[in-house]
Automatic annotation (TrEMBL):
Residue ranges of domain TauD/TfdA-like in the record: 117-367
CDD domains registered for this protein in UniProt: CAS_like
Organism superkingdom: Eukaryota
Protein known as: gamma-butyrobetaine dioxygenase
Species the sequence originates in: Semnornis frantzii
């Protein structure tokens, strides 16, 4: 049912407009926001979905001259300079300033809900081909990836290039200094610890970049018979445990800038340097991104000497929680498997395996940004809602 308006009036000497809805609820809209959000062709470019009104032309103290209910589906406002604006009831209802309405809008736009997990993870799975060619399956994949942080796609061809298809499905892949895709296998003179047969500790990829990739794809092309198991841990779940167990350690890791570095040659020559907090938090102190890679953590450490040991103690406690048996999930990729996971949330590692005369284990990797995947998710939701 589309919302209908029962009554409209100006309040607070014209600084607010009060809308009473047919269901008895009400919404209060600041007039400066209403004027700034005028949808007329002079103020809004509909073909781009973008505001044309220049901010320097906006009077932040503006009041309404007249507000009327032209029909129960929209209101009309006349401003002091005689400019007129119309606002549809459905448009207004979605943008209500109540706490409940704002929470619903956040859920609709960003899907902030997380399903936390530990060693009991039931790894979600879906056929690779379904994601490529079926909109409902692709939408389910992206929603699961956002909520759980990880999903396994099965049945891809055991050859290079399959991740390029996945990139086209979401929009495009993230180009980095390691190329549009990269090959994880044992290499002589490896320019990355992943390109060895040794154990990889829990880490997120690329904290040496100012904006680390949001999502990682790893496609198993060849798998060793012994060793090489993959390990994952829900970093947000562990952050919550650390915050509960040792608030001071959490505060240190969420406030200390750590230096990361990555130097070498691959897709091109690179010398990357960045400062990141191990735990990035939002205004409420909740973890929103983990930036932890022990291999690329620099020996340069730009903090006072007396703060170094407390930092190491805090990081040790966090690392111990990551590696506890109750938190980590272990699985082994098979040729044709594509694991997709949230690189800001899920830390991953690998057990060691034996090196041989030939390549015994080969994964192809790629990155994408959350902006790209969330864009595709919203577009798919729009298509499916029309259907």
């Amino acid at each position: 049912m589309k919302p209908l308006i029962q009554k409209v009036e100006a309040l607070d000497k014209g600084h607010f407009v009060r809308v009473e809805w047919e269901d008895g609820s009400e919404s209060h809209y600041p007039c400066v926001w209403l004027r700034d959000s005028c949808q007329c062709p002079h103020c809004f470019l509909r073909s781009a979905g973008a505001r044309r009104l220049l901010f320097e032309d906006l009077d932040v103290n503006i009041v309404v001259k007249e507000v009327t209910l032209s029909d129960r589906k929209k209101i009309s406002i006349t401003w002091p300079d005689e400019h007129s604006s119309e606002y549809e009831a459905e448009w207004l209802k979605r943008r209500c300033f109540s706490e409940k309405a704002r929470a619903e809008m956040r859920e609709d736009l960003f899907l902030p809900e997380h399903q936390y997990w530990g060693s009991d993870l039931q790894l979600p799975k879906m056929p690779f081909e379904e994601v490529l060619y079926d909109d409902e399956s692709a939408y389910k994949w992206l929603c699961t990836l956002k909520k759980v942080g990880i999903m396994l796609l099965t049945g891809a061809a055991a050859r290079q290039g399959e991740l390029l298809k996945l990139g086209r499905r979401v929009g495009f892949l993230r180009l980095t200094f390691y190329g549009p895709t990269w090959q994880v296998q044992d290499k002589a003179d490896a320019n990355n610890v992943a390109y060895t047969t040794g154990k990889l500790c829990f880490h997120t990829d690329y904290p040496a970049l100012q904006h680390p990739p949001g999502v990682q794809f790893l496609h198993c092309i060849k798998q060793t018979s012994a060793g090489g198991e993959s390990e994952v841990v829900d970093g947000f779940h562990v952050c919550n445990k650390l915050k509960e167990q040792n608030p001071q350690a959490y505060q240190i890791l969420s406030s200390t800038a750590v230096d990361y570095t990555d130097v070498g040659v691959d897709f091109c020559e690179f010398a990357v340097q960045c400062k990141q907090r191990i735990i990035d938090v939002d205004a409420r102190g909740q973890a929103v991104r983990i930036n932890y890679n022990n291999a690329t953590r620099d020996t340069v450490f730009d903090i006072p000497a007396e703060k170094v040991r407390p930092f190491y103690a805090a990081l040790k406690e966090f690392n111990d929680l990551l590696n506890s048996t109750e938190h980590k999930f272990i699985y082994k990729l098979k040729p044709g498997d594509v694991v997709t996971f949230d690189n800001w949330r899920v830390l991953h590692g690998r057990q060691s395996y034996q090196s041989g005369a030939e390549v015994t284990r080969h994964l192809e990797g790629a990155y994408a940004d959350w902006d790209v995947l969330m864009s595709r998710l919203r577009l798919l939701r729009r298509i499916l809602s029309r259907d």
